[in-house]
Design goal:
The chain is 19% helix and 27% strand. It has 679 residues and is of the alpha/beta class.
């Protein structure tokens, strides 16, 4: 866009211009923005909105031990982490044994007055703030004051360390690709992540020469040309760079996904085989098990119990809200030195500020994830909490209790999709199955910033080098690392080929423990060791994505402007014909009959024959036909196409899971096929 402003005021009005895609960030009035949107060649004009961050044993749990086969190219792989920055002094980012940065690296280390320095592990670091208004509790530096970016970076590429979170989860903390390099792009501050800065970070990462981008942030799903992560990732894709992104933390409700563009790898969160429980002991001897990450020593001290609803701050405009322990709702005099019972899952800030000795929370939400709080705390199911409340409000006794320190126990039901992980279907393109896959995102031990409160609540004075945290933010860098691992073995593969390898080798999941099935876990649980040898890949190029966008009815001028490709032409494809590694069919109530076209590229043995194996549920009226049912390859890199016909009938609010596997006796190239009617 070109705007006529006085030359002496250009820097005041024009905040960013981007190098790898045509666009800029400018200060405009509402009227000026409307006029700009009507200029020929302008694709979209949208405000600079905020996006949210999506907040050891995991690698071993996936069978990816420290001594797996490594490529000599791993140290030439650079992961770009778009997040809150990094704490460079962390032991997880030591550079002993690392040589100089890869010769292709063009990035910089943006130093500042806080002694931030890079090394041969952290080879690049930048920060972005278009308006220049650094929050008072942050710093103009790539340094991470919030901990999120440090945590994510170490999950992906941290070096090996003995670690724990104040004694919990003791073991080895390591990244998936510990020899890879890290480049940091700080776009998230204590007042969230601004879209102008996110786009600038993508622009810089492309120019710097990163190989994979990790973006554990997002917001509500938006049209592709209005979503800065989708726009930035599209241009990264054009340069052969895969962007791994978090699916979001708004589950288990359907239609809650973030980052749904087909050129993104969208990652949901799964559990690993450990969890943390926190016992509440009442004065009558009753012991009730809850969940949390309680690192405070109990010393068997007991404290009086009080229900938040009985401790209202009468001066608050809605005193009845004290039962939820929301900010400013509690009477400090009544709760000080007591364990307060709250009818909601909260951060703990209000009881903490009010001087409470502890906090017991209750809700009907699943007990499948644990969090850290600024005071001793445990989260109970409402049925258990009812017994605590009955004891607390019994006027014949003085209610007292103890919140014990958390303990680690084995979770034999893992992996399954965590309740907070956002679910599909894809709200913009329901014919593209999202999330793509799941990766560990619950109770992940990784590096942290010692200046960041481990509970996220200001005033929590604990300082930790490692933190146990949960979220699709933690799942995303696991997938990022596996993508980098595959890239180190196959440096010439496209981003789509790498993504396909991750999806088609994923461990199939069961709808028995994941009610929303593929809408929750996509292709399944990521499987690092199998991903380096997928046999076949579903490759996609810029022209394929352009046809996909044409099928959505996007303006041809806009598509040419964004992609640099030709016009859509008169014949428009359907969006489900994108050469995607999974197949999704949203349909209406009753009969359906759809044909999908796919093309696979042989990346295995030059001479190989694959047979189609179709799995359909016995109790569902669905038929799947594959033509041809045998694919015979005579060379590496050869492409062969096939059609999948899916027909049958479906009931109201139903989901039918099935699959297609191409099997040559060595490789099992699996694609989920899901038909759903959610109306």
């Amino acid at each position: 866009m070109i705007f006529r402003v006085p030359s002496e005021k250009t820097s005041e009005y024009l905040l960013y211009t981007y190098e790898n895609f045509q666009g800029c960030v400018a200060k405009l009035t509402e009227d000026e923005a409307k006029k700009a949107s009507r200029i020929n060649g302008v694709v979209s004009v949208f405000p600079n909105r905020k996006k949210k961050l999506h907040t050891t044993r995991s690698w071993d749990f996936m069978g990816f031990s420290q001594d797996v086969e490594r490529s000599a190219m791993e140290s030439d792989i650079t992961i770009g982490v778009i997040d809150t920055g990094i704490w460079p002094e962390s032991e997880s980012f030591r550079d002993e044994g690392f040589g100089p940065p890869p010769s292709k690296w063009k990035g910089i280390c943006q130093t500042s007055n806080d002694n931030f320095t890079c090394n041969n592990k952290i080879i690049g670091a930048r920060y972005f703030r278009a308006d220049g208004e650094i929050p008072e509790d942050d710093i103009a530096s790539p340094r991470d004051t919030m901990g999120h970016g440090t945590h994510c970076a170490s999950i992906a590429a941290g070096v090996v360390n003995k670690a724990s979170f104040l004694g919990l989860g003791e073991g080895t903390a390591r990244g998936g690709v510990p020899s890879a390099r890290i480049a940091v792009y700080k776009v998230c501050w204590t007042d969230d992540c601004w879209e102008a800065d996110i786009l600038a970070a993508f622009d810089a990462a492309i120019s710097d020469g990163v190989d994979v981008i990790s973006a554990s942030l997002g917001f509500d799903a938006l049209p592709y040309f209005e979503d800065t992560i989708a726009i930035g990732a599209f241009h990264a894709m054009k340069h052969g760079i895969l962007t791994s992104s978090a699916a979001g933390n708004s589950g288990p409700r359907l239609n809650t996904l973030s980052n749904i563009a087909p050129w993104l790898l969208t990652v949901g969160a799964s559990t690993i085989d450990r969890k943390f429980t926190t016992q509440v002991i009442l004065g009558n001897g009753m012991a009730i098990e809850g969940v949390s990450l309680n690192t405070f020593e109990d010393d068997d001290k007991t404290f009086p119990l009080i229900y938040g609803g009985d401790a209202a701050n009468k001066s608050y405009e809605e005193p009845l809200l004290s039962r939820y322990c929301e900010l400013d709702t509690l009477n400090k005099t009544l709760v000080k030195g007591k364990i307060v019972i709250c009818d909601w899952i909260i951060s703990g800030e209000e009881p903490f500020v009010a001087g409470a000795a502890g906090m017991i929370m209750q809700d009907v939400e699943p007990h499948d994830h644990a969090s850290s709080f600024p005071l001793p705390a445990s989260y109970l199911h409402v049925d258990d909490a009812a017994r605590v409340l009955s004891y607390t409000r019994n006027l014949t006794s003085t209610p007292i209790g103890t919140i014990k320190r958390s303990v680690q126990v084995e979770d034999t039901s893992a992996p399954f999709v965590v309740s907070f992980s956002s679910r599909g279907p894809n709200p913009i393109s329901p014919g593209i199955l999202k999330p793509d896959l799941i990766a560990p995102g619950e109770s992940i031990l990784a590096a942290y910033s010692p200046v960041a409160p481990p509970s996220g609540v200001m005033g929590d004075q604990r300082s930790v080098k490692y933190l146990i945290a949960s979220g699709t933010s933690m799942a995303c860098p696991h997938a990022t690392a596996v993508a980098a691992y595959v890239k180190s073995f196959h440096p010439t593969w496209s981003e789509a080929a790498i993504k396909s390898a991750l999806m088609t080798t994923a461990l199939p999941m069961s709808s028995a423990t994941n009610e929303e099935a593929e809408l929750a876990y996509g292709s399944g649980q990521i499987n690092p060791l199998k991903a380096i040898d997928p046999g076949l890949v579903y490759d996609v190029g810029v022209s394929d994505y352009m046809k996909f966008l044409c099928s959505h009815g996007y303006n041809e001028t806009a598509i040419r402007f964004i992609t640099g490709g030709s016009s859509c032409g008169q014949k428009r494809s359907t969006n489900w014909d994108l050469n995607y590694p999974s197949i999704a069919l949203p349909t209406s109530l009753g009969p359906f009959d759809t044909v999908f076209t796919r093309t696979v590229t042989n990346v295995g043995s030059p001479n190989s024959t694959y047979k189609a194996i179709v799995t359909v549920p016995r109790d569902q009226p669905i038929v799947i036909k594959v033509q041809p049912s045998v694919l015979s390859f005579k060379s590496s890199g050869e492409k062969l196409s096939f059609k999948v016909r899916v027909y049958g009938t479906i009931g109201m609010r139903a989901l039918i899971s099935s699959s297609l596997v191409w099997d040559d006796g060595q490789h099992q190239v699996r694609s989920p096929i899901v038909v759903f009617n959610l109306s």
